[in-house]
Amino acid sequence: MLNPRNSHFKQKLYNARNLLEQRKADRHYSKGIKAYKKKDYLNALIEWSKVKDIRPSYKQVKLWLKRVNKKLTTAQNGRRPSPPPAPKSPKSYEADRFFTQGLEYLKEGNYLEAINTWKLALSLDPDNSRIKRYLEKTQQQMNEEINDLSQQASKSWKRGKAIPAVWAWRKILKINSKNSQALVFLKKHASKMNVLANDLYLQGVQNYVENKLVEAISNWKDVLVLDPDNTKAIKHLKRAREKLKEIGDFHPPQS
């Protein structure tokens, strides 16, 4: 049986997690391709944005994001151009500007800002069906993703798995920085998280001193889940990665 403290086991565990992340990214990438072929450019953008979030270095998705961005800013969701419309009012032009701005927020995975911007656009142009459609779809997508993450966080915490639980709550706050459930949880358990972060940081130091670089990197990455602004962990994590690269032992992703 493999010893969980053994570096060989840690390497296998890392490789397994890496493979799962890759497969998850591949699934979202394929969904994006299917949506794009159906000219459902909004869903394609959402799926490929997820890929970029999971795997920032995913090569193919960069090209497709560039393509779908052009479609979203120049086409009417894949439809043939309609006859020349009546002249627009100044408010309609302003609404179009906010629509484009909302798309930029969506590309960054910032659902809440996209939604708020499109609500502002609709206040200027209440009958704009395109903005209504994008607003409704984005609200639905945001709610579904937050719900999935919330369930994941609750299950992980109940099972004593603090790191994935906190990761999920922080992910929710990246989607919606005002999510009360995530904010309450992180505030309530702040002291426990600080104690655990300190313990993991010291474990990382011990592993680094013993030249167990894979374990040290794992420790300090977990510290940054609990305490994203921990400057000591950021500094030492960078140093450990550089050392691993120098000895050619292992090449962790720069995510």
Structure description:
The chain has eleven helices and no strands. The protein starts with 6 loop residues before the first helix and ends in an 8-residue tail after the last helix. The protein is globular, with a radius of gyration of 22 Å. Mean pLDDT is about 85; it is low at about 75-80. The longest helix has about 30 residues, at about 5-35. The protein has helices at about 5-35, 40-55, 60-75, 90-105, 110-125, 130-160, 160-175, 180-190, 190-210, 215-225, 230-245. It has a domain at about 190-245: Alpha Horseshoe (Serine Threonine Protein Phosphatase 5, Tetratricopeptide repeat), CATH 1.25.40. It is an all-alpha fold and about 260 residues long.
Overall strand count = 0
Averaged pLDDT, please? 83
Low-confidence stretches: 76-81
Category by helix and strand content: mainly alpha
The N- and C-terminal alpha carbons lie at a distance of 31 Å
The CATH superfamily of the domain at 192-247 is: Tetratricopeptide repeat domain
- Strand % is under 5%
The CATH architecture of the domain at 192-247 would be: Alpha Horseshoe
